[in-house]
Write a structure and sequence with these properties.
Strand order of the largest sheet: 1-2-3-4-5-6-7-8
Strand content: 5-15%
Shape: globular
Largest sheet: 8 strands, parallel, barrel
Radius of gyration: 23 Å
Distance between the termini: 46 Å
Low-confidence stretches: 1-33
Amino acid sequence: MSQITRRHWMQLTSACAFLSAAKAVTNVSAANNSAFALKYLLASPMYGYERLEAILPEVVKTGATAIDIWPKVHGNQREQLSEIGEAAFLSLLQASRIQLGCITQYPLGPFRLKEEISLASRLGCHTLVTGGEGPKGLKGNELKKGVQDFVEKMKPHLEHAAENHVVIAIENHANNIIDSPDSLKYLMDFRPNPSLGIAFAPYHLEQNSEKLAQLIRQLGEGITIFYAWQHGNGCMQAQPKESELLQMPGRGSLDFKPIVAALKAIEFQGWTEIFMHPFPRGVPILETTDDVTAEINRARDYLESLIS
């Protein structure tokens, strides 16, 4: 040390400072590049009519932070909530260190959600999913007018949802006024406030990953839930399990890479729900709870591999 001149010492110090700064910039750059992450939501009917006590501990195992509970016929966890009561349900959530992220309510439809919105608010849940109601098979200007009328009828319900910090997300479901790319775009054109959202289901749209990605970019922040779900061989009839599972990401022919890239491009902040329908409805997608969780994790690994 006694042989190091002051000038040499200053040069070394400056070099160290530069390297530290360069490393910090590199770390920030890496963090920015990897900042996007999918926020996973677990759908209760993936486990059929299994009890909440058995499903809720599986949430964190699938990389999710919240549960989406469905009523019959797809699941019966919403009915279980009514059976055990809100206090007991909240205790189960707390024990599993998760939240109620969504209540899916197709039986009630978009115009009968008043009590469900209040329930969701009490339980700290900010999302309800349902379908649209209105004329089917519309095209062009008739479709545009039909969606406009639907949104107009929704306004009182959206006001109640906004007061309770809840978003009503409409799925693009088959045989529904909201069932096509145009109807989804019209829905966003006419929405009066962010309490109206979209539950985006690739299953019900043309299985073209580039077109799906383009639509995601067009809908942007209007998407509240993204279903990681493809058509595969469908779900409306009995078929071998390996064929039925083609609805899952990474199994069927749909390339999710452009889709995930589009979600990243819009900085998607909503829920991602890995999903499929079994046949018949109400049964788990695989025989055991462990098998269901493992299959969801396989699909999640596939999605995660596409992010970078």
